[in-house]
Structures are given as C-alpha cells and as structure tokens.
Design brief:
Distance between the termini: 15 Å
Helix content: 25-40%
Number of helices: 3
Structural class: alpha+beta
Order of helices and strands: HHEEEHEEE
Number of strands: 6
Strand content: over 45%
Shape: globular
Length: 136
C-alpha cells in the first residue's frame, strides 16, 4: 500500500491551487510538528479489500480511510487550502493517480481543530474514503 501514499501525495501536489499554497509540504503523520506551514499531514487509518471480498481471497480492489490534517498560520490560508483539497479529493471517480487506479474518493468526515496557540497554527481534519485498484 505504500504506492497509495506516493499516489496520494503526488495527486495533491499536482493541483496548482494546492501547490501554490503549500509548495511541496505534504508529510506523513510522523513528521516533525515544527514543520513549516501551511502544510498537509496524512495518515492511513485503515485499509483492506473491498466489501464482499475476504483477506483470504486474492483481490486487487481496496478501500482505505485516509486522514488529512491541514495546517496554516492564518484563517485565510487555511480556508483556501481546505477549499482546494476538497475540490481535488471529494466526489472524485475513475481517475489515474500517478499510476494507481483510483475508483472513488469521498470525504467521510471533517473537523475544525481550532487554533493551537502554542504552535500558532489553525487546523482542520478531513477523513477520506479512497477506493483503488492495485493491478493492471
């Protein structure tokens, strides 16, 4: 599934609106909390075969849940980033993400994380369900 991480990052950064806001700052969950902002942090929450398929049966169709944390120093940058990410990720179907066959991508939940005074950061959290195919 590490290919999905690469595909997700490349898909986000290929969007001119997102890249204009964050540059290349897309990091895994384990990234340094002191990283420059605005930025996106991602975490694969869960992943497994599509519904109706078992772990015992070989399959190339997967459903995964990804958490995207969006950070910015000011509300305007955060709002612009959130709008761009939603446009890029929500209600997308049948696309090629850097060689991965993405079947569907939908936002499942979004939460305003508020303002972290110590870090001087505003943040929101989005959960996306991404269904993809790994084979040819």
């Amino acid at each position: 599934m590490s290919d999905m991480k690469t595909a997700l990052c490349q898909h986000l950064l290929a969007d001119p609106a997102i890249a204009a806001i964050i540059g290349d700052r897309v990091f895994p969950q384990e990234a340094d909390a002191e990283a420059a902002s605005p930025r996106i942090r991602y975490l694969r929450v869960s992943s497994g075969p599509q519904d109706g398929m078992t772990l015992d049966a070989p399959t190339e169709y997967y459903r995964s849940l990804w958490q995207l944390d969006l950070f910015a120093r000011n509300v305007d940058d955060l709002t612009a980033l959130e709008t761009a990410v939603k446009a890029r990720m929500d209600h997308q179907i049948m696309q090629n993400w850097s060689g991965m066959k993405m079947l569907a991508s939908f936002i499942m939940d979004e939460r305003d994380q508020g303002f972290d005074q110590a870090a001087n950061l505003h943040s929101v959290q989005h959960d996306y369900r991404i269904e993809f195919q790994t084979g040819d």
